[in-house]
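Assess this today:

___
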Amino acid sequence: MEIISQLLPFVFLIAIMYFVIIRPQQKEAKAKQAMIEALAKGDKVVTNGGFIVVIHKVEENFLSVKMNDEVITKITKDSIARKYEDEA
């Protein structure tokens, strides 16, 4: 009984860390992965580098993106930060 009472605070600490730190990160990662999988041609996205680009072609691990009328480049799907929402 004494061992249980000594371990109980550690169990509570681990549970609190799980619900405060680990679980929200897992939910955020799952939401980002779903967003990346739902990307389609013509979507505007913001890259981790801060570029706003238009998706030109979706491949398995890469995206061909159009930076302007003349430049089309290839980036990894992991380099997408978020979808771009027009403010106007």
In short: The helical segments are 2-37.
